[in-house]
Amino acid sequence: SELHPYIVVGSGCTGAMAAQTLVEAGVQVLMLDAGNTDDTYEKLIPQKDFIDIRKTEETQHEYLLGKKFESISWDKIGSGSQLTPPRKYMISEVEKFLQVLSLSFFPVESLAYGGLGNGWGLGSCVFSDKELELAGLNAAQMKAAYQVVTDRIGISGGNDDGSNYTTSFLNNIMLPPPVDSNQQSLINKYEKKKSWFRENNFSLGRTALALITNDFNSRKAYQPKDLDFYSDKDQSAYRPWITVNELRKKNNFTYKAGILVKQFKELENGEVEIITWNKVKGEEEIFRAGKLILAPGVLGTARIVLRSFEKENKDLPLLCNPYAYFPCINFSQLGKKFERNTTGFAQLSLFHDNGMQGEDIAMASLYSYKSLMLFRIIKEAPVNFRDGISLMNYLMPAFVIMGLFHPEKAGTNKLLKLKKDDSKITGDVLKAEYHLSDHEQQKVATTNSSFKKAMTKLGAIPVKMIDPGMGSSIHYAGVLPFEKNEKEFTLSPDGRLHGTKNIFVADGSGFRFLPGKGLTLSLMANAHTVAQTVLKQEQIKL
Q1: What is the arithmetic mean of pLDDT over 345-356?
Q2: Residues 6+ apart with CB under 8 A from 148
Q3: Class of residue 335 by CB neighbours under 10 A (exposed 0-12, middle 13-18, buried 19+)
Q4: How many CB atoms lie within 10 A of CB 451?
Q5: pLDDT (tens digit, 9 = 90+) per residue, 368-390?
Q6: Euclidean distance between the first and the last CA atom of the chain, given in angstroms as a whole number
Q7: CA–CA distance, 95 with 296 (Å, rounded to integer)
Q8: How confident is the model at residue 134 (pLDDT cuts 50, 70, 90)?
Q9: 117 — phi, psi (to 5°)?
Q10: Which contiguous run of DSSP H or E holds residue 455?
């Protein structure tokens, strides 16, 4: 088979960024990807705002609820429960090819074109120097890479008390979209009670989002239609397929869909043989690379590496942010009319910097609740369904949903392993366990209580905590932690897989610590630095 100088695995946020860096350097790049797409719903959604659709569109149920009403579930809320019908394709075929067996860890994975980035909430935060150090990342390289990624994808954000935790030192930040009256009332309360928040190490500010509010390259400025969980037609929200679409116009980039990478073999001459499953043909297909850059997401990378080194039952570490969300009632907004021109994305972020050392930071994203619709939360109401409809119609304009992420370190009961399973096409299945220690559980509970108190100070009273289980944060890392010394199942700080010469990992597999702040911007910045390392290594050889 043909030798490809550089092969990138995966079209998600990290694969897209690594590929762009390589392509811009002028080298030939092949991207291998499962590449599932939505062929049903996106084309059905009209160019109207959510309220217009609700008032005028006779077939709205098809894309708001699903043609088979697949969006309505009365099961326990878990990972991925909030995916709308136009986003469901993200997880198609996952059960077939990427099954995880666990009683304690319930991840979301994707075989989609653009990966999990299709459902990313767009939250964009730089890590502090201390967080970078704990994660094992080079601060100087990452700071330069953050700016590169920002200039590629476009980020909007505020200039306020939260900025230090989000955009910090970044340049070219656009103004955020307008804030609605529900969340503006929280800002007003915060300003009046700022001394309390400062004394208790809390900061509130506009959420930094990978959302453009000015025209940017060929993408149009964001128009708040509150369809953010349904459609990306105007491309104002950054999705990795936008980058891959642009790369596919270049002569030095090739994209191949329908490919599931199973394992690799590094040959004596340094070439890498990549064994894949072609989903379309239903057979194995082999590719050859000079350099292999893995970016299928950390669970996918774990599978590929364990298979390649033939280490069944080898335990790998795992990191995942503990996460829960809290419906809150902002009593000043009860019974008010819904506003037009609002956003479904998080509008505000609340940070708790424990000890003010820039190390132990928990983050809450604050959402108003409208376009995800009542049926998703009505089953959580402590009344019957009929009364719940009336109650929720009154409460809905006052809802603030607080999604709270906690920082996370490695532990002895946070593990992955590969188990043989001949019934699977890949011949195996991933097993996982994830348990917080008693001390960690107590710390999470204490932090939850602090945030509930802070929200009450903002006038939004938490009425319930919903814990969707470990894995629901969809923030995963740490399966091949960074190590300076050559050690099996670890990465060198520059992303090279120890025990190999020409295999690199560009996703979050190396992170030794997972901050509570959104990690996607850092994942993309790291992917850029890994691709730079690969290029430099090749130049030194030449």
Answers
A1: 93
A2: 525, 528
A3: exposed
A4: 21
A5: 876 555 655 656 666 666 666 66
A6: 24
A7: 16
A8: very high
A9: -60, -20
A10: helix 438-457
